[in-house]
Design brief:
Layout lengths: L2 H15 L20 H7 L1 E5 L4 E7 L2 E5 L5 E6 L4 E4 L4 E7 L5 E8 L2 E7 L2
Antiparallel strand pairs: 1-2, 1-8, 2-3, 3-4, 4-5, 5-6, 6-7, 7-8
Length: 122
């Protein structure tokens, strides 16, 4: 599947999360992934809720994080730092957020020029 199609599919899924979200696209950036400790990756696993009430799931499998909107394709996310991750298949980014005491409280998902915060609920 080509990158433009993958990006379109992901944007379509996110448009379901945020009705009226623009479908603007930009090409993938060249990014380099780094190693992140397993306990940090594990802390990001969970269910995140967008303001619209819909969800995105973050899972950990064989040491790799994945995001998936229920009913949509699953995408691996690659770490650029301990909190910033990117989708290699298209131009998408996830930035995880922590409270002052270090608890993961949410994440900001960005793709196609759309910034979509979600809070971690489980």
């Amino acid at each position: 599947m080509n990158r433009r199609l993958l990006s379109s599919l992901y944007l379509a899924g996110l448009a379901l999360v945020l009705p009226g979200a623009a479908m603007a696209q930009s090409g993938p950036q060249q990014r380099v992934d780094v190693e992140v400790a397993a306990d940090i990756l594990t802390s990001y696993v969970g269910l995140y809720q967008f303001a619209s009430g819909l969800y995105i799931v973050v899972t950990l499998e064989n040491g790799f994080l994945f995001t998936q909107i229920p009913g949509q394709e699953r995408f691996r996310i690659f770490p650029e730092s301990e909190t910033e991750f990117f989708v290699r298949a298209f131009d998408g980014q996830v930035v995880f957020e922590r409270s002052a005491d270090g608890v993961v409280t949410g994440a900001v998902f960005t793709t196609g020029g759309q910034v979509m915060p979600a809070r971690k609920i489980a």
